[in-house]
Amino acid sequence: MATDLIKVEIIERQTVKPSSPTPHPLRTLQLSVFDQMIPSHAYFPTILFYAANNNINGSGGGAASTDMAATRMKEGDYCQHLIQSLAKTLTHFYPLAGRFSKGHDIIQCTDDGAEFVTARVKCSLSQIFERPDLEMLTGLVPAIGQPDADGVATRLPLLAVQANLFECGGMAIGLNFSHRAVDGTTSSALISCWAKTALDDRDDDQIPFMVPKFDAASYFPPLDFLNSSQPSPPNVEGIKYITKRFVFDASRIATLQSHLSSATAPHAPTRVLVVSALIWKCAMEASSKSSNIPLGSRSSSFRMSMDLRRRFEPPVPQNLGGNVVAHLLVIATPSLLKGQEESDDETIDLKDLVAKLRKGLEQQKEAYPTKLPFDSIKAWQWGQECKKLTGNVDMYHLCSGSWCRFPFYEANFGWGKPAWVSIPSIGLKDLVISIDTRDGKGIEAMLSVSEEIMEHFESNPELLKYASVNPRVM
């Protein structure tokens, strides 16, 4: 979709505070060592799209009324419903209504509130769904202000929401979360809890199981020398990174899994693993072509996030809030390359790469410190080693985040489940985010790389055998 087809008009900005004051014993939240290792300026967006096929009670309805007064009243009902239910939800997710202390090592949970923006979008959802432009989608997510020159962001909200009202009567809820405050698991829990509250705010019986326990610092102690503000790193390269969407449907993933299954492995590789390996392979090849560096002359790294909540001994609460995530790093050496005798091209054997990635991730999972009491120094050293490796300019690096299995498509606020869940353009170097398709079986991969790498990546015949490049939604 061309960006000139959409115009976002901000109607109102307001602050949503928790409906009940946060108790005084909970008003100071110490960050854990995992939180501390996330830059204070890092935010991550999510957008949930809802078609205009249900009214606010989920009992029918159709397109937006042609009567403008009725349309405004309906829009007001939608937004008021979201605001009231968000206020109730924030009583359980109170850190996201707080602000960072000056050193960013503490969240002051003093009910400053989340930012809520109401916007009118002058196009229909069908125009966006025809061929989504991820750069254009950035207007559907509330922008976060910049920290001061010294990196202090004590006035910035940790959660910002934008309710986007389309001409067709559809809606998109854009969210922006502080990554230093929460990870994907905790942010997904907030969306689920918020939707449950909005759908039936008279029934609180099912809410507690979704509510995080915000005391991760008692399990993963913070480190004093990490308690300092972290200014945003400048883009010294001056390179523009573009994000494109690649969709792997269930049948093609099954074919890929079958092709990559090994007689020596007890289980077929997971769908996330095979898609990750294919994207990594194609990205390495594209980087080689765009830089004119022979594929066989340098190594490459693949970094993947791992949720640790189910891995500790003794167990930690599964609803532990904040960041409980580690990064695993696998290195592919030139020995994985296969030269073709009758061609100047070099390629990577995908089966070998899958085996390398699978084995490497399992070894890293076993090696990562998951015993309690937790060794925060060891975890920090692990992170530093990972950072050092990914800082090697003589290698190609790809970072991956998987949001698969998060229940985004179950988030019914009272007008049905999402028609589509996505993210806007990431604009970061060599990063891929994976999200389930609506049926929960396919994968949508949003890849952010330089324009030069993307040109080669999206034309790779092996990729196109399994993925569709930005197809129509639904």
From TrEMBL:
Q: Which UniProt keywords apply?
A: Acyltransferase, Transferase
UniProt-listed Gene3D superfamilies: Chloramphenicol acetyltransferase-like domain (3.30.559.10)
Which domain of life does the UniProt lineage start with?
Eukaryota
Drop me one GO molecular function for this one.
Answer: acyltransferase activity
Report the Pfam families cross-referenced here: Transferase
Q: Which family does it belong to?
A: Belongs to the plant acyltransferase family.
> What is the protein name stated in its UniProt record?
Benzyl alcohol acetyltransferase 37
Look up and give the organism this protein is from: Prunus mume var. mume
The uppermost taxa in this organism's lineage are:
Eukaryota, Viridiplantae, Streptophyta, Embryophyta, Tracheophyta
